[in-house]
């Protein structure tokens, strides 16, 4: 399967809200309301759903999804992931990356030392972090490393086609 046809999880259906099929929305987008910029949604079973309406309700977002008319309907979709296809994501500039693109890339130092493969990417508040699973043959006995994803300081280059991230990093750390 190519990355272009992959599903990207952008949120999750929460508890029913009221009796007319409205549901709470848990969003994973940068801005909470950004989840509503993407349509159609693919819910758990892969079926496409269109959004009818949405609104803020206190500190949460609630939405009415077409075809979900009752509280029982809303209960049926509760806790399902909200996904979109990768083609629905905006195009990024040359030096911007989606976390999903970095996962699985090989990480090597500027001196050619193979640190391993990106297992995960997350944010600490200060900056993004790549979690690198070390190769079984790691000479330093490390099983994984956490490297700050800071361009030009730590991250020297990202080769999307070659799937290699070059870093300025001490392999013993």
TrEMBL record:
Role, per record: An accessory protein needed during the final step in the assembly of 30S ribosomal subunit, possibly for assembly of the head region. Essential for efficient processing of 16S rRNA. May be needed both before and after RbfA during the maturation of 16S rRNA. It has affinity for free ribosomal 30S subunits but not for 70S ribosomes.
Name the UniProt record assigns to this protein: Ribosome maturation factor RimM
GO BP: ribosomal small subunit biogenesis; rRNA processing
Organism: Salinimonas iocasae
Xref: PANTHER family: RIBOSOME MATURATION FACTOR RIMM
Highest rank taxon of the organism: Bacteria
Domain notes: The PRC barrel domain binds ribosomal protein uS19.
Taxonomy of the source species: Bacteria, Pseudomonadati, Pseudomonadota, Gammaproteobacteria, Alteromonadales
Chief location category: cytoplasm
Family of the protein in this entry: Belongs to the RimM family.
Name of encoding gene: rimM
């Amino acid at each position: 399967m190519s990355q272009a046809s992959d599903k990207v999880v952008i949120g999750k259906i929460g508890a029913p809200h009221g009796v007319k099929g409205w549901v709470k929305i848990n969003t994973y987008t940068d801005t909470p309301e950004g989840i509503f910029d993407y349509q159609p949604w693919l819910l758990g079973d892969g079926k496409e759903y269109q959004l009818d309406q949405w609104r803020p309700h206190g500190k949460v977002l609630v939405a009415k999804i077409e075809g979900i008319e009752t509280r029982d309907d809303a209960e049926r979709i509760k806790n399902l992931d909200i996904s979109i296809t990768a083609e629905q994501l905006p195009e990024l500039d040359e030096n911007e990356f989606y976390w999903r693109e970095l996962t699985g890339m090989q990480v090597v130092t500027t001196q050619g030392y193979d640190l391993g493969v990106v297992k995960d990417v997350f944010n600490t508040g200060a900056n993004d972090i790549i979690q690198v699973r070390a190769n079984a043959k790691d000479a330093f006995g490390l099983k994984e490393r956490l490297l700050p994803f800071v361009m030009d300081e730590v991250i020297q280059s990202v080769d999307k086609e070659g799937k290699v991230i070059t870093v300025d990093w001490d392999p013993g750390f």
